[in-house]
Known about the structure:
Layout: H1 5-26, E1 38-49, E2 52-64, E3 69-82, E4 85-101, E5 104-119, E6 122-138, E7 142-149, E8 163-170
Antiparallel strand pairs: 1-2, 1-8, 2-3, 3-4, 4-5, 5-6, 6-7, 7-8
Amino acid sequence: MRPSPYLKKIQLLFFLLTVSSAALAQNAPPVNTFWERVRFGGGVGVGFNNAGFNGSLAPSAIYQVSDKFATGIGLSIIYSKVNDSKLTAYGGSIINLYNPVDFLQLSAELEQLRVNQSLGDLNDNFWSPALFLGVGYTNRFTTVGIRYNVLFDNDDSIYLNAWAPFIRFYF
């Protein structure tokens, strides 16, 4: 006795539904944990001297990809006034952090700032790139260290030298 052609179609349909249901169950979207891995923070700087003032604000957000690696973006605003010269810089950065061991943090930060500078009656506007490579001591929320600007140019930089200490906070 031959099986009915309808029975074969029903068996094939049942088989395809079973396989696709199993595949969909295994590929169910994971619970969204994106925001649980995002940390906010950044840095603040203030300096005074006899002739003026300088300050910076640098908020940022990082995504903790793993226990050892994080990546993110930041904003920067810098203001400086010394005697009759004034500098305002603003821009953004991309930051990568790597912790080879719990207390040590290596960092790479690409920064691009738009600089508006006035020296008496002379005004200058330009872009200032920087690539900082850093190392620091870290605990869960704070990192203290030093970084080096590998793109530093003594004639065309808003920074005094290539080395800069830093304190970074993330919560």
